Amino acid sequence: MDILNDVIWPNGVKEAIEREDVEKVKKIMKTADDFLSQFSPQMITVEEFKEDLKNLENLVIFDLRDKKSFDDNSIKNSINVPFGLGLTEKVRELGTKKIILTCFAGKISSVAGDLLRKEGFSNVYVLQAGMMGYSNNFK
Description:
Elements: H1 13-18, H2 22-30, H3 33-36, E1 43-44, H4 46-52, E2 59-63, H5 67-72, E3 79-80, H6 87-92, E4 98-102, H7 107-118, E5 124-127, H8 130-137
Parallel strand pairs: 1-5, 2-3, 2-4, 4-5
Pfam families: Rhodanese
Protein name: Molybdopterin biosynthesis-like protein MoeZ
Domain Rhodanese: 55-139
């Protein structure tokens, strides 16, 4: 999976990702509901995720936000893979571990999760509402 080139992104998103213009990506994706409706990843709720956190040896969390956002606030033991670039190779190395993808609001991770599902990875889940949902439930 090449998340940058295998997806027909809304105008400006691919270029913003390439420039690491996080604010532009967030702004465009905020209104991209029609675009996102074509993707159907396996989702996991924050409540289900809380249960999974009790068994970290069988869980890998990938945070698809930019490095600065990840460094500012991230889930303990998560791995930063900005915008999901190179994610397939990392997932392939993990075997049967349960994989959780997150991003700002679950939109980029939904695209990545769907692409991975279509490649045959059945152990990949997207955290519903991303870090926004996680932060709102873990205050």
